[in-house]
Amino acid sequence: MATIDRQATTLALAHALSAAERGLAVLPLSRTKLPALPSPHRAPRGAPDAAPDRPPCHGECGRPGHGVHDASTDPARIRELFAAAPWATGYGIACGRPPHHLIGIDLDTTAGTDSSAALRELALRHLFTIPPTVVVRTPSGGRHLWLSGPPGLAVPNSAGRLAPGIDVRGAGGYLVGPGSRTRHGVYTLAPGTAHLAPAPCPQALLRLLLPPPRPHRSVAPAAPGVPGQGLVQFVRSAHEGQRNTRLFWAACRAYENGMGPGLAEPLLDASRHTGLTEAEARATIASAARMTGHRP
Ligand SMILES: [Zn+2]
């Protein structure tokens, strides 16, 4: 087990309690940014897995150690969790929970990607602006933008789906809270954002974060066995108002799966069918190519 740094734990608890006061559910994290408390259901080393047919427990057993399911806004519960994890040096903030329904946009700076530029390009293409909101700086120079989502919509977690270097933390995910100490350093609030509340996520960005709507079944079924035909069909059956978003989404999936160049013409054709101009469609496909790290 890691060495115990009482001062770091006390600080992390203080930051966690103040986050909880703002309505954010928190849980203790270890130096590795992982939940500090181990699962109470893990079988002892060498023993066969206990009751593999039992449905997974999300904390119903009453014991701590269920990852993000441990997160709480109750100060007494938070103190209990930290007392059980004296090696904790940070805290996680559960996303997707009321009242904020937090969505974290994680802009990574490692691996040579300029995720801030990628976000700016997404914003230009989809006509949204990131409102003034809470920003947390990571020890590696990255940034976490905090946004609030509407109730009733579960934004899924994703890594690099929006654009290279941009991860999304939504329902079931958590963000490392400001004031947390990890192996690589301390997470801090960006100057001038501490007094802000998480701003509502712009609608156009929210559409990109949500899984695409299922194509209508009334349209002709995709030809079986033709790779990418489903994507083309998905674009072809788009209504006005979702044409560009669908085309962008489909083109990203095409490039990610190595079908970009081959599908560009069929996707253009499908977009023309929906009434999108050729110039618009070409620009969207080119943007999807760049976004996924390809040459348009
Ligand atoms: Zn349990």
Summarize this entry quickly.
The chain is of the alpha+beta class and 296 residues long. The chain contains eight helices and twelve strands.
Give keywords:
seven-stranded mixed sheet; alpha+beta; 296 residues; 3 domains; Prim-pol fold; three-stranded antiparallel sheet
Describe the structure.
The chain is of the alpha+beta class. The chain is built from eight helices and twelve strands. A hairpin with a 2-residue loop joins strand 6 and strand 7. The longest helix has 16 residues. The chain is elongated. The protein starts with 5 loop residues before the first helix and ends in a 5-residue tail after the last helix. It binds zinc ion (ZN). The site of zinc ion has 7 residues, from loops. Zinc ion binds next to loops.
Q: Count structural domains.
A: 3
Oligomer type: single chain
Q: Estimate the strand proportion.
A: 15-25%
CATH class of the largest domain: Alpha Beta
Nearest-integer average pLDDT: 87
Uncertain segments are: 217-222
Largest sheet composition: 7 strands, mixed
* CATH A-level architecture of the largest domain: 2-Layer Sandwich
List the helices and strands and how they pair.
Blueprint: H1 6-21, E1 26-29, H2 75-84, E2 90-94, E3 102-107, H3 115-126, E4 135-137, E5 143-148, E6 158-163, E7 166-169, E8 174-176, E9 181-182, E10 185-186, E11 188-189, E12 199-200, H4 203-209, H5 229-236, H6 243-256, H7 260-274, H8 278-291
Parallel strand pairs: 5-12
Antiparallel strand pairs: 1-2, 2-8, 3-5, 3-7, 4-5, 4-11, 6-7, 9-10
Helix pairs in contact: 1-2, 5-6, 5-7, 6-7, 6-8, 7-8
Zinc ion binds next to loops.
